[in-house]
Amino acid sequence: MARLPLSLIGSFFLRVLTWLIPLLLLWYVGRHWMVKPPAWVAEKAMLGFFHYWVTGSEMDGTTQTLLTALQVHSPDGRVGELTPTVNILSYAYGTPLALALLLATRLRGFWWKVPSAIVMLIPFQAASICFTWLMQVAVLAGAETTSQTGFSALQVNLIAAAYQLGFLLLPTLIPVLVWLSLDRSLIAAIMIDGALSAATEERRGQV
Q1: How large is the C-alpha radius of gyration of the chain?
Q2: For the range 174-179, what are the long-range contacts, defined as Cβ-Cβ under 8 Å and sequence gap of 24 or more?
Q3: Is residue 115 pLDDT above 70, yes or no?
Q4: Between these two residues, 196 and 171, which has the higher pLDDT value?
Q5: What's the CA gap between 68 and 80, in Å, rounded?
Q6: 91, 129 in Cβ contact below 8 A?
């Protein structure tokens, strides 16, 4: 019995998976370089918006620590400075996903679209990093830091919501949106294929 051909969408996702596996491996091998751009943007953003309590950041592999002047108390009564941390890989895996989507469509101009996709993802990855830091400052340590940061209850709630968005949605949604912004050929092909299939079914119904 003849095998049924794969559908347009099915074959596309098969190509995505074929590309995604080696791209994830390459991304992980080069992870220490891949995290540097969003880490730099995140640090500059925090220094720009919260210069009165942010002093900089430090990198340890793929973990970035925000350095602050916020004072917190340990259980034994000692006073220290709050240093929230984030593992950047938790927010940067969208890069190989976006590249796999682009390469799976066999797009033209990949030589400029691939680096463009990488650059377009950096601000969103940096935003996720910032909101993870802010969640630790405003939510987890809020009882001790509110008087120092000046965050209102509304701002704390917005930070918590932004953290959830940045952790659960942005790392996977933004790569898809970046891909769609750079290459809409698959969507057009699906629409054309759907229109042709509907017309064929209509003709069969009339026979």
Answers
A1: 23
A2: 174/94, 174/121, 174/124, 175/94, 175/95, 175/97, 175/98, 175/101, 175/117, 175/121, 176/97, 176/98, 176/101, 178/98, 178/117, 178/120, 178/121, 179/98, 179/101, 179/102, 179/105, 179/117
A3: yes
A4: 171
A5: 10
A6: yes
Using alpha carbons, select from 129, 138, 159 the residue that is nearest to residue 70.
138
Q: What is the pTM of this model?
A: 0.84
- Yes or no: say if 83 and 137 are a contact pair by the CB < 8 Å rule: no
Structure tokens at 120: 């377009």
Mean pLDDT of 92-109: 87
The answer to whether residues 102 and 113 touch, using CB atoms and an 8 Å cutoff, is yes
- How confident is the model over 158-180, as pLDDT tens digits? 999 999 999 888 899 999 999 98
